[in-house]
Amino acid sequence: MSIKTFTSEILTSTDVNNYLTNSGSQYITSTVVGTTVSSVTITGAFSGVWDSYKIIYSGGVGSTSFHLGLSLGSTATGYYGGLIYNNAASATPAGALDSNTASFTFAGGGNTTQALLNCDLHNPFLARYTLINASNLSFTNYGTYNGALGNTTSYTAFTLTPNSGTITGGTVTVYGYRKA
Amino acid sequence: MTRPNIQIDDEVREMTEAEYEALLATGWTLEGTDETPTAG
User: Fold this and answer.
1) What ipTM was assigned to the predicted interfaces of this complex?
2) Which CATH fold would you assign to the domain A27-177?
3) pTM of the model
4) What is the mean pLDDT of chain A?
5) Taking the CB of residue A99, how many other CB atoms lie within 10 A of it?
6) Measured between beta carbons, which residues in chain B are less than 8 angstroms from residue A164?
7) B32 touches chain A (CB under 8 A)
């Protein structure tokens, strides 16, 4: 989309629609999380319109401290990744890994007072490995997680699953990064 | 024991037996953990 400079007080619907359609990131879907659910599946999230996505889950809480795993479609194997984090009481970094696990285990997390998943997901719909860049925050640990799902399956849905307990409330929102 | 709830988009319902078995196979547990990432 070319950049247009507005020179009058008249903003036409064509101009507005053009900018909405061509924004850098575009809202795709959102789901309000229910009460004490052990997993949340969001369907219709990925398509050929976008290759990279921003997924945010915030505003909820857990029944206990938890890591929030992210899995694609019905695939429950082949997830690899690395988490580098430090505890608030120590500047020395530590690590944890996913090696052929059932989800991107450390995609997000929380406890009984907060929850957050904030990640970029790449190529879930394409016949490519699906890649993830995520933040992993809890009350005492702060880290960065990156991973890959080692298959070329095309996905349209994903599921968030706490490794322990249940989650309540908050919203899962999916955005797409405009390709061109 | 009552099976936990599952949510698909905006519908929340109790898990089926098969869904619950699949969830347990991932290592999921109802019990709490500490704040250590390796706990997952």
Assistant:
1) 0.84
2) Jelly Rolls (2.60.120)
3) 0.90
4) 93
5) 8
6) 28-33, 39-40
7) yes
